[in-house]
Design brief:
Elements (H helix, E strand, L loop, with lengths): L13 H24 L3 H4 L21 E18 L9 E17 L8 E3 L5 E6 L3 E2 L3 E2 L5 E7 L1 H8 L8 H16 L3 H19 L4 E6 L2
Parallel strand pairs: 4-8
Antiparallel strand pairs: 1-2, 2-5, 2-6, 2-7, 3-4
């Protein structure tokens, strides 16, 4: 007579443990989504932010010889998508749509003007100046006017954000926005405008000092 096999109480098959763990993870994710959308729950379990930063310390002071002659405001829409090989986007992958706003300044470095670059006649009525060409400064991203329009992330990416020190980092799209803004500034004619404004400034300044003929050139 065959004795029936009895399962020991408290034992769970390995496949059941895996399924249970996966279900628990999904439950946590869905619970977080429901808490975020239910009215009143967000305030009940909201976090409080406290700024305990120390005072800012002055490290150094640098004298500037640049004449900031023009500034351009730019806006770019960054669409960054990251895919994983052999995995669907719902499992692993992300796509971020980001609006980046920033400024780029154009300047003329008057500190590079040598003594031979300035010529004045004997009666001090005529002056000729030769200046270096205008240059573009580094693009500066405006955090107050830059924002993410949408974010799509796969399951693994969402789980990674839960254990990350910097969840939902926008560093990649911010760097792309700065790069695109810098490229746009190069073809915007901003340096030409800076040279025109610098010429107008110097002409007005020297004429107020008694010079009648003022000529400004750029380049070597």
């Amino acid at each position: 007579m065959t004795t029936p096999v009895r399962h020991l109480p408290g034992r769970m098959p390995a496949w059941a443990k895996v399924v249970t763990a996966f279900v628990l993870v999904l439950a946590v994710l869905f619970a977080g989504i429901r808490l975020a959308v239910l009215p009143g729950i967000k305030d009940l379990f909201g976090t409080e932010t406290t700024d305990r930063s120390g005072p800012a310390l002055l490290k150094s002071i640098k004298d500037m010889s640049r004449f900031e002659a023009a500034s351009g405001n730019f806006q770019v829409v960054v669409d960054l998508e990251k895919d994983a090989k052999y995995l669907p986007d719902a499992v692993r992958g992300s796509r971020t749509l980001y609006v980046g706003a920033g400024t780029v300044d154009a300047y003329v470095d008057l500190g590079k003007v040598a003594r031979d670059d300035v010529t004045v006649n004997e009666d001090r009525t005529s002056a000729t100046l030769r200046l270096p060409h205008a240059q573009l400064g580094k693009p500066a991203l405006d955090a107050d006017h830059s924002y993410a329009v949408s974010k799509q992330r796969g399951l693994f990416d969402r789980l990674g954000d839960l254990f990350s020190d910097n969840p939902n980092s926008e560093q990649a799209v911010q760097k792309l926005a700065v790069s695109h803004i810098g490229d746009a500034a190069k073809g915007s004619g901003l340096t030409k405008r800076a040279e025109t404004n610098t010429t107008s400034m110097l002409e007005g300044l020297l004429r107020s000092l008694g010079f009648k003929d003022v000529r400004v050139f750029y380049g070597t």
